[in-house]
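Forwarding these from the shared drive since the link keeps breaking.
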Amino acid sequence: MDSTLPFSNAMLATLRSPVGIVVGWSAFAGSHMVMSHPSNREKLINTLGEKPFLAAYSIIAFATFVPTTLIYARYGAGKGTKFWSGSSRFVRAAGWSTKVLGAISFTQAISTPSPAAAAGKSSLEREAEGEVEESNAVEPKGIQRVTRHGLFFGVALLGIGQLMTRGRLGDILYWGGYPVFWFIGSAHQDYRQRKTLPASFYEKTSLIPFQAIVQGRNSWKEASKEMNWQIAGMTVVGALFVL
């Protein structure tokens, strides 16, 4: 039994270091991708049912993300090689502003119904049935005109805002995971939902924020009309209390 102790100690030493953050992010992202992959998702829904699947999905996400955050807080925050300081007033103001924009994107995404839900069925039901509807019910609205994945983008901006003022290796590995997961998660979600949402929705929207608007495929004027500016204002005011 003693022969296993060096191996166990080595594993603990790895987790109690910035490398543990990478391991945690890999576990979180990997489990997310495996469970949400169309074929795996459908099998799990058919076996477990929709609500149990969602519960299992949430539990696994919680069980991988929370330990990653705890590892960062204990062993990574402000530790490791310093690549930049981010201590100037300008950088700190830019970082705060970026995080506020992320919070606005996040709350706008939550307050805007998903295209699948607006079509009258849950995304899980639509995927399980392989259903694609060309319907006005999946017309992009609000933040969806800016980016298809406002929630993911909001989280990415949170990470970028933190990176501006936290330049040590442990901070970079943890907060850098947010924008990386935004891109990977958004691309994977596009791959999955293209089987259930009409092509017209993708023709009018973009994964990269503002790309569809810049290319003339959508309108900022329409997006701004549909935004919930009351929630946006509450988000900014709330952020002022934590300055």
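-- next protein --
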Amino acid sequence: MVQLPLGGKALIVSPAGQVSGRDSVQWYRQSQNEIETNYFNIGDMVVYDSTLKLLDLTEVRGTAIENTPEAEIEAYRNYDFFLVRASNFIHSNMEWHQALELFDAVQLPIFAIGVGAQASSFGRYQLDDRNLRFWKTVAERSTLIGVRGTFTAEVLAANGIKNVEVVGCPSLFRARKRDLQIRPGAVERVAFSIRREAGADYATSVERYREEQREMLLRFARRFALRVTTHGEVEEKAFVYRNAERMQQARKLFLQQRWWTEDTAAEMERLYGDLFFFLKVSEYDDFIRTQDLAVGYRVHGVLPALANGVPGILVTYDARCAELADTHAIPAIATSAVAEIDPDRLIAETSYDVFNKLFAPRYDKMRFVLEQNGLPHRMG
């Protein structure tokens, strides 16, 4: 076990936002135009915020892993450890720039908690040389790597990395309530998280994927007081910020993609008139606690809801979603079943019994991995 001082100073590899106070993450200070026109994944911000909420740190600092100045490297030596933020980092397309050279220059422990292998479907694969050396370096400088699920553990094992434990995602434990239990009640208000953008890697037919998602969304909207949550797509942000020119461009794209159709455009326009988007993670916590159910295609639309005690149902459109749903027994439906969904029946037949039973053991496993690594934490 690596022993660290209580309240350690952490160097964050690939941060996702800026930290205020002890553990509150918000997106970087940018102009409104930059925010509107650049895609960035809000889920990365949520998991970063959640990780900081589990740890007991006195200072965090983002690391430069490309052309790092010598003065910066010297400053890093005053910190206690590197922390690789939880994300879909285990794959051969990941670009770590000069991270390995930085690790060689700064001989500190390296920890990764909640990382996952990125793939559209389950299957083992060999990491390329540089990505393999990255994860072997992490393995050598930590007691345990905490991974998202069994699939990720198998990928690392297939690449010779065995000191791995399944911990799931930090976002599910962000409230630090070991006794959390989901007790569903009457449903009136629903938050529906959308993922309009998808490539061929994630859907046999992207057009069909969008069509089924839209129809599921509209069925829920016709039945409940529904709020669509958007998590980074540029066209949706045009509606959030009411940019008339960009909204018109977005409408044309939606029709081309058949995300909107002539028959559904009026309904979709109404829903898009009140999209929920956030740049501070705390804003999502505040919002989701006003809802009776979170359902949809975004992991970080559903997991933070569950962490706040709000029932959630995840659509598993890729291996990442399916892996997390399996790890935590999150109620989930596959995209292949979306076309047949009746909202009332889905809600009535969804049980949280297994989720509730597994929550405390999963919570304990996350805390165990933190403690085995000697990481200061606040998971009581």
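The CA atoms of residues 132 and 337 lie 36 Å apart. Residues 1-6 have pLDDT under 50 and may be disordered.

- D.
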